[in-house]
Amino acid sequence: MAFSASWIWKANLLPKIKMFMWLCAHNSISVKACLERRVVQDNVCPVCCNGVETILLALRDCIQLKQLWNHLGVTASNYDFWHCNLLDWFSLSVRSNDKMHDTGPPWKIV
Question: Where are the alpha helices (DSSP H) in the chain?
Fold first, then answer.
């Protein structure tokens, strides 16, 4: 059975973004939820102190980041953006060639 994130290598993205997404898909990013198995004892997000620091919390769900996403044009009503798992969130973002809003950067850069 093929790994479900192999599409990352075919995406029209910068190589460093593909590599970052691949590492996220393999839970190899140094967030506390991933490090907890090996190193750290405290897995709480150091920014918001509002839950386990997972990859999704570090990239999307942290309260501080929600404000940033809002400034980039993502509204609270964008259900798909806010409620899918990591790989689906990446896939949704990569498939969208649109800008986040009229003056915002294209998704593939964000």
Answer: 15-25, 32-35, 55-56, 63-71, 79-83, 86-95
